[in-house]
Specification:
The chain has 5 helices and 4 strands; from the N terminus they run ααααβββαβ. It is α+β, with helices and mostly antiparallel strands.
Length: 227
């Protein structure tokens, strides 16, 4: 007498499963339950890649703008040979911070501005160098004082694409390093460091003695030291 009572729920369950299998709407719901989480992951991964691409573009633009602005220091000055002041260099770095809005550049970035010139022997020389940002990232192409004498220092930049300065002028060479801050996929992407360089020749003749500070005329401006 008990067996029919046991079999009835089993039979009913089988019928419901059979109806569910024949119901296309139920199949769609099951498929969506499996695919929606996967599509969400793919979507967020796409956003992460887009954000990384945008960060690369912004860092590239920052390096170009900084080199260009540094090359324009004292541009249009009435003096025949205007000097570069620490204040002027700091203004370039202020522009970098404004342009990098939202990137938290000071904490996660480093910009190195070098004045590449010719020494008295006709060789290339990093006359002076200034830095901004807390990221520990040394220059990849030389430090202040490299090439002060002789002709062994070939210039700044990757091998085969060295940038050099002509006699009586200077090249503003900029290196930017930025530690990318991922949105969601930090472990998946791994540590990402974005690097960019740019160089512009100064726009007009200037006094090449180096940045001035506190001489009574060209004064005030904290030195943005690289050390």
């Amino acid at each position: 007498m008990m067996r029919p009572l046991i079999r009835r729920p089993i039979i009913a369950a089988r019928r419901r499963v059979a109806r569910l299998a024949r119901d296309s709407r139920a199949a769609v719901i099951v498929e969506m339950a499996f695919t929606i989480p996967f599509m969400i992951l793919i979507g967020f991964a796409g956003l992460e890649i887009a954000n990384l691409t945008l960060a690369n573009t912004r860092i590239s633009q920052i390096s170009l703008s900084a080199a260009d602005n540094a090359s324009r220091i004292a541009f249009g000055n009435n003096l025949s040979l205007p000097r570069v002041r620490e204040l002027d260099i700091n203004s370039v770095f202020t522009g970098v911070e404004e342009q990098a809005g939202g990137l938290n550049f000071k904490q996660n970035g480093r910009i190195i501005l070098s004045s590449l010139e010719r020494n008295t022997s006709g060789g290339q020389w990093i006359h002076w160098q200034r830095c901004y940002g807390d990221l520990v990232a040394p220059s990849s192409y030389g430090v202040q004082g490299n090439g002060a004498t002789g002709t062994s220092f070939a210039g700044m930049g990757p091998a085969g694409r060295k940038v050099t300065a002509a006699t009586g002028t200077a090249v503003m060479f900029v290196e930017v390093t930025y530690r990318y801050q991922p949105m969601l996929y930090g472990k998946w992407l791994g540590a990402k460091t974005i690097r960019s360089t740019a160089a512009f020749n100064i726009r007009e003749a200037r006094d090449l003695q180096g940045p001035q500070n506190g001489d009574g005329v060209y004064q005030v401006g904290t030195k943005s030291s690289c050390t």
